[in-house]
């Protein structure tokens, strides 16, 4: 009489499928049901463990709470390009060191953004910024520069905390914070590392729910070295 354990072992091997079929036919119904039950229990345990892992991972990603606004902003760095002057400030949030505070200010309507790159190039960089739409509304977005198209908005916007966005006297500004870690794979870098900074501006406006328009004719200013935005000091990079 076939051993049910042997039957179960044999049926896990694709190479022995013919032999397994023969053994299944020779086995009494009791052994067949016993083997089915064993396999089903293993499958249920595996599916249950996988579901718990997915649920816990999803919960961990969405349990990020925005901290309170810092009482003071880091020192601002002024940069000048052909069609716009803008200010940039970065530093850790004083209430939650896992969040990076970013302040951006533009002298003309459009957008201002800072990108984090591993190779001084626009491609494959994490880009956050402040932008204005045609109606004058100002907001923030988290985006990603791939190869093509150049820029795409992060569909989740998780980990972004908007403290203030305004357009006053011809100038627009945004003060926000972003969680340092990777919340959306393929759209985020971990900000608590070293990167080249890409700083750009443009007079082009677009809807707040879409990506940054291409910044022609201005190309981004690129930092001479790699810095950690959490420990970056504006005096290290006086002017571009």
TrEMBL record:
Domain DOMON: 84-203
InterPro entries, sorted: DOMON_domain, FRRS1L
Biological process according to GO: regulation of glutamate receptor signaling pathway; regulation of postsynaptic membrane neurotransmitter receptor levels
Pfam families in the cross-refs: DOMON (PF03351)
Highest taxon listed in the record's lineage: Eukaryota
Name of the protein in its database record: DOMON domain-containing protein
Organism this protein belongs to: Amphimedon queenslandica (Sponge)
